[in-house]
Amino acid sequence: MAIRVQTAAFDPGAEVNALHAANLGVGAVVSFVGYVRDFNDGREVAGMFLEHYPGMTEKALAKIAVEAGERWPLLKLEVLHRIGALEPGEPIVFVGVASGHRQAAFDACEFVMDYLKTRAPFWKKEQTAVGSCWVEGRASDEAAAGRWAK
Amino acid sequence: MKLKVVFFARYREVLGLDGEAVEGEFVSIEQLRAHLMQRGGAWQVLAESNLMCARNEELCKLAEPLADGDEVAFFPPVTGG
């Protein structure tokens, strides 16, 4: 299990490859990459700043990853989230899951993203033509996370 | 008890404050929140119904009890990913 919170850009392809490298038991890798869009809520987005809660961020992501490992038989799990200034087109987040068979990897990847969206302390501030504004939380994200309640 | 209270994102901007030390007796985070809101003005931001909070870097509910030395964080709904 790897948790990384960083300002530096990353290469999603390299992250995917690393998930099955040196482990011939891996039969499935599922990954999610989130990118900065140039448009949101009817406004052009010139850039974004990602604030977080140092200390809690890493703990919250680790807790989500541990829970995923308890729910599904996973071989590897990586969560990488960027902070600081980002431009449209840049990757923000990577979640990669390796398992023996595909279903566990599909489910665990969705679970991690749904929980990350509602439980990890990150906040997006978008720069637009009318100034910068904080992105509002979405009820649909809460509903998505609620699917996994036991 | 002595607490460290921190704010993030929009709350941090509205309050013009990253955080502060707060001294007093608070049974729960809810009581601490009420105490801060009594200051009026910008502090009313803490009345928002979707406010989130954490105790010692763990998400929790407003009913969470407090102990001396705790770090309490208030912030709007998270928007990462």
Automatic annotation (TrEMBL), chain A:
Family annotation (SUPFAM superfamilies): Molybdopterin synthase subunit MoaE (SSF54690)
Keywords recorded for this protein, A-Z: Molybdenum cofactor biosynthesis, Transferase
Catalyzed reactions per annotation: 2 [molybdopterin-synthase sulfur-carrier protein]-C-terminal-Gly-aminoethanethioate + cyclic pyranopterin phosphate + H2O = molybdopterin + 2 [molybdopterin-synthase sulfur-carrier protein]-C-terminal Gly-Gly + 2 H(+)
Pathway(s) per entry: Cofactor biosynthesis; molybdopterin biosynthesis
Top enzyme class: transferase
One GO molecular-function entry: molybdopterin synthase activity
Pfam families documented for this protein: MoaE
InterPro entries: MoaE_sf, Mopterin_biosynth_MoaE
GO biological process, one term: Mo-molybdopterin cofactor biosynthetic process
EC number(s) per entry: 2.8.1.12
Assembly with partners or alone: Heterotetramer of 2 MoaD subunits and 2 MoaE subunits. Also stable as homodimer. The enzyme changes between these two forms during catalysis.
NCBIfam families: PRK10678.1 (NF007959)
Sequence similarity: Belongs to the MoaE family.
PANTHER family, A to Z: MOLYBDOPTERIN SYNTHASE RELATED
Name recorded for this polypeptide: Molybdopterin synthase catalytic subunit
TrEMBL record, chain B:
Keywords: Nucleotide-binding
Molecular-function annotations in GO: nucleotide binding
GO biological process: Mo-molybdopterin cofactor biosynthetic process
Coiled coil: none
GO cellular component entries: molybdopterin adenylyltransferase complex
Keyword Nucleotide-binding: yes
Xref: InterPro entries: Beta-grasp_dom_sf (IPR012675), MOCS2A (IPR044672), Mopterin_synth/thiamin_S_b (IPR016155), ThiS/MoaD-like (IPR003749)
Keyword Nucleotide-binding assigned: yes
CDD domains given in the database record: Ubl_MoaD
Record-stated family: Belongs to the MoaD family.
The protein, known as: Molybdopterin synthase sulfur carrier subunit
The organism of origin for this protein: Pseudomonas fragi
